[in-house]
Amino acid sequence: MNLRRGLTVLAVAFLGALAACGPSKDKSDPLTTREIKTSGDPEVSPQERFGSVTGNSLSNLFGSGDGEGQGGGGGGGIGVNAYLWRASLDTVSFMPLASADPFGGVIITDWYSPPDSPNERFKVNLYILGRQLRADGLRASVFRQQRAGDGSWQDASVEQKTATQLENAILTRARQMRIASLQ
């Protein structure tokens, strides 16, 4: 009988915790009221598209966001280098995002088919490894699939230089952002 009572209490506690994870009812919350921008709209800047993940709202919540005293532009609330984070989002802004974790430094895109080749699609995983703006602070993985004759997607090989070129493009953009912030 005690086991049954314990399981009931555990189930009620679990359901209560699950209910607390629901959407916010506060209409003044900017995350619940802001309009989600689509990644295909060329008129929308990455700052508008990704909202507080790259904007000042997150920085204002945890710190100044100017990168001063953060060991190479880490930002106040972001757990990784802010320049690498913003440059990564900027570089893959043409692809739809599946997940973006500024504290863990992981950006995962959804599959993207270029307009000129609808029978292949790409996906990118980016890992920002630290708070310093360094070449070894970023890892990129690029995945590619091709459409088979039956309409299903088949994994295809991607040359390692593709990921290296993507990393170099992000690092170049991050350096440009850092230089612009110092001027």
Keywords:
5-stranded antiparallel beta sheet, elongated, alpha+beta, DUF3576 domain-containing protein, 183 residues, single chain
Which helices and strands occur, and which strands form pairs?
Elements: H1 2-20, H2 30-33, H3 46-50, H4 56-62, H5 82-91, E1 97-101, E2 106-109, E3 120-128, E4 138-147, E5 153-156, H6 160-182
Antiparallel strand pairs: 1-2, 2-3, 3-4, 4-5
Protein name: DUF3576 domain-containing protein
Pfam families: DUF3576
Biased composition (Basic and acidic residues): 24-40
In short:
With 183 residues, the protein is of the alpha+beta class. It contains 6 helices and 5 strands, in the order H-H-H-H-H-E-E-E-E-E-H.
What's the end-to-end separation, in Å? 71 Å
In helices, the fraction of residues equals 25-40%
Number of domains: 1
**Main sheet overview:** 5 strands, antiparallel
Low-confidence stretches: 22-72
> Into which percentage range does the β-strand content fall?
15-25%
**Overall pLDDT confidence:** 74
User: How many beta-strand segments?
Assistant: 5
- What is the ordering of alpha helices and beta strands? HHHHHEEEEEH
Q: Helical segment tally?
A: 6
From the alpha-carbon coordinates, what is the Rg to the nearest angstrom?
21 Å
Which strand order do you get reading across the main beta sheet?
Answer: 1-2-3-4-5
- How does the overall form come out from the CA principal axes? elongated
Backbone structural class: alpha+beta
Protein name: DUF3576 domain-containing protein
Keywords: Signal
InterPro entries: DUF3576
